TrEMBL record:
Keywords: Oxidoreductase
A Pfam family it matches: adh_short
Entry-linked InterPro entries: NAD(P)-bd_dom_sf (IPR036291), SDR_fam (IPR002347), SDR_oxidoreductase (IPR051911)
Name of this chain's protein: NAD(P)-binding protein
Keyword Oxidoreductase: yes
Gene3D superfamilies referenced in this protein's UniProt entry, alphabetically: NAD(P)-binding Rossmann-like Domain (3.40.50.720)
Record keyword Oxidoreductase present: yes
Similarity comment text for this entry: Belongs to the short-chain dehydrogenases/reductases (SDR) family.
SUPFAM superfamilies listed in its UniProt record: NAD(P)-binding Rossmann-fold domains
One term of GO molecular function: oxidoreductase activity
Length: 294
């Protein structure tokens, strides 16, 4: 039983985390609109979705006219919850990555979700109720070797959400950033590596044997690691926790998912504390002298 039946719009609903969230929301009694670039494919890959009453819409968030589509859908279905899950990871070294590859990553992981948010906000604002849910990543807070571009896209869209939550908190709209660790979805089969270095394993020769080589090689074969597996996250469990948070309320901005993400986050927080302690005294010393003329 849910207190209130909500109207959800989920991008990337045809697969992985988006699919699990969409199904969990339907199971909890909500109405769910699933956005996909290819409805015919989605009907095949996610038969449960239509079976449980989900409604597919054809929409590619990377297309500029998707703003109008998001706006129309949000009005037509009176959307209460927007989940931005569509995304992919570009894994490649800073030096090895072309500007076009960076732009393509930003188009999907940054501009797409931003368009969706801007288009859906007016409906939520008008009724004084709504949730903006971003499926970010541990990589939205931690940038590892080979993940600079992916992390840049997730850091950037997290910044939008961190800012947005303060802009809309008095207007009845809540914001939730989800930071999953590694989850067992088709995500790793959609990884993209630098095209120019495909013939040498996804990185340029000088990086052989470095942290970049390890990360690219590990990422490409990550789902092949035998039990106990490197990728242990269960997408259906994640989906249910996200729906529970929306239904029961939450008093945080970031929801971390997966023990691997907890460990990585502890390490990052430790390094932030280290830098903070190491530079605090200097930081406290750089204001103008009040006797100094400016
Ligand atoms: N799985 C993980 O380990 C993991 C960890 C941390 C964060 N995440 C994040 O979780 C989100 C969902 O990932 P997932 O694991 O569910 O992956 P997935 O199974 O590959 O699903 C990704 C979805 O994104 C859409 N998509 C992919 N490339 C796109 C493109 N170029 N343009 C537009 N849409 C595109 C696809 O939608 P259509 O093909 O239907 O249009 C697909 O449904 C992503 O934002 C990802 O960064 C995943």
């Amino acid at each position: 039983m849910v207190a209130r039946h909500l109207s959800w719009l989920v991008t990337g609903a045809s697969s992985g985390l988006g699919q699990s969230i969409a199904i969990a929301a339907l199971q909890a009694g909500h109405k769910v609109i699933g956005a996909t670039r290819d409805v015919a494919k989605a009907v095949n890959t996610s038969p449960d979705f239509s079976g449980k009453g989900g409604i597919w819409v054809q929409l590619d968030p990377t297309q500029q006219d998707s703003y109008e589509q998001f706006a129309r859908i949000s009005k037509e279905h009176d959307i209460d919850v927007l989940v931005n899950s569509a995304g992919y990871a570009f894994i490649g070294g800073v030096e090895d990555t072309s500007e076009d590859e960076v732009r393509a990553q930003m188009e999907v992981n940054f501009y797409g979700p931003l368009r969706a948010i801007r288009a859906c906000l007016p409906v939520m604002r008008a009724k004084g109720f709504g949730h903006m849910v971003l499926i970010s990543s541990g990589a939205g807070f931690i940038a590892r070797p080979g993940r600079g571009v992916y992390s840049a896209s997730k850091f950037a869209i997290e910044a939008i959400h961190e800012s947005l939550t303060q802009e809309v908190e008095t207007l009845g709209v809540k914001v939730l950033i989800v930071e999953p660790g590694a989850f067992r979805t088709p995500f790793s089969t959609h990884l993209i590596t630098p095209a120019a270095h495909e013939s040498t394993g996804g990185f340029s020769k000088p990086y052989k044997g470095t942290a970049l080589d390890s990360m690219v090689t590990m990422s490409r074969g990550i789902m092949d690691v035998p039990p106990p597996h490197l990728v242990r996250g269960c997408p259906d469990k994640a989906g249910r926790e996200i729906v529970k948070a929306i239904d029961n309320g939450y008093n945080y901005l970031r929801m971390i998912l997966g023990p691997d993400c907890v460990a990585a986050m502890e390490q990052k927080l430790g390094s932030l504390h280290h830098d903070f302690d190491a530079t605090r005294a200097v930081a406290m010393s750089t204001d103008i002298d009040i006797t100094e003329k400016v």
